[in-house]
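[SOLVED] Need 3D model of a two-part complex

Original post:
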Amino acid sequence: MSKSPDWGWCCDMTITGLAEEKNRLIKRILSEMQSRNWSEREQYDVHLALEEAFSNAIRHGNASDSAKKIQLNCWMMEEKIVFEMTDEGIGFNPGQVPDPRNSENLLIPSGRGLLIIRHVMTNVAFSPGGNTIYMEKKRSAPPAPT
Amino acid sequence: MPPRIEVKKQADVTLVLCQDALLNDELAIQEWGDQLMSIVENGTCQKLVLNFEKVRLMSSSALRILIMLQKKTDAGEIPFILCGLRDEILEVFKITNLDTLFNIRKGPEEAIRSFPYLGEKI
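Solution:
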């Protein structure tokens, strides 16, 4: 993790599927957001999106294989925060994920993570292979003066 | 396995208070789910209220457990109500349409009051 004069703050981390590693990284990101006066709601949105993205990367991407890694790059600027998360899986086609909101899918236990990420983040995209997710959260209001 | 829930009985209602502020880790969610399922499976639960007032964040993995619990309570004809959901968490239920699947009430008192009389089904 490092300070960048252009991006405010950035990090480049590789972790396994261990919850402790994931939690430590998310805590660090939220702490950086808090110190830059991002709102509690924006911190919650980013927290939830990261949890969902990590869960997808661990369970679906890396098939819960603890030998496989997840790469997270994060760039935090004054007006937005950008994430790029890559797993070691074979990827997927996001267009083929069934819509969990449809009545016939309501009782299917999985498949809601992507929908939640799209709701709480400003922009979401995938690499052509589907094993990298790009997530962007824009600040809703200028940071409060300190 | 640490206790993920606190269980109380009030007449024929089993009141379950979720203890974790963050329902986000797969292992913790699995333990939480196992403890919830055992309540329904032990045969003594007649009506179930699940209180989330301590929970600040709930991932979709926790929703998965709740859907399985809803199926189990439906199969056992056990009325099942969720309550104490913070606005941000309730929003997740709404965007996923799960607010149409679950019976959701504001707090535990309202949940208990909303149960049907004996013999009626929700």
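Edit: The mean pLDDT of chain A is 91.
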